[in-house]
Amino acid sequence: MAQVRNVRPGYAVIHPNREKVSCKLTRLLIVLIMIASVALMLALTIGGWSKLQGLKPVNFVWCLLYIATGVFVWRWARGLLPIVAALAILLLIIAVIAGTGLAGTSWFDRNHAGYANAQSLFGGSGLGTSTLGALTVLMIPLEALLIVMAMIGFSQGWNVEQEVPEEEARRRGSKTIASGPQTQTA
Question: Are residues 9 and 40 in the same domain?
């Protein structure tokens, strides 16, 4: 349902926290970490295709979720940051289990005799077991950093709005200067 925002004539609504350098940097870091996570997930999925168990489709869905939420976070959607952190926690758990071998065999254990090399999604030779293990272990600090940055971003109050005179909004470089009643979609 559309919400009606009544703004006094001659005033505009701005988001003062979005103007802060720390907020812009946090948002940028979150999106970059998510892009790096997607790149690692795709490298692991494509490079170790023949040796992955049942999570192959889930890896692609996870990548799509990270990309979609990254786009919305880039557009200042603060409400998705706890969801990003939750996804990162789940991926962190999977990376710890897969990277350390807590569930049996890690990628590093596959260097021994009796283990075949991984085949790529496209049929060629996949990544080496040491490379797959290193990428899996690299996911651990990356996801931990994403969790921390998402929670920092959530605490920065990107959604805070302030009603200021139009000339002050222009002076601050506000992109959306509007006065009078506005309709906003929920």
Answer: no
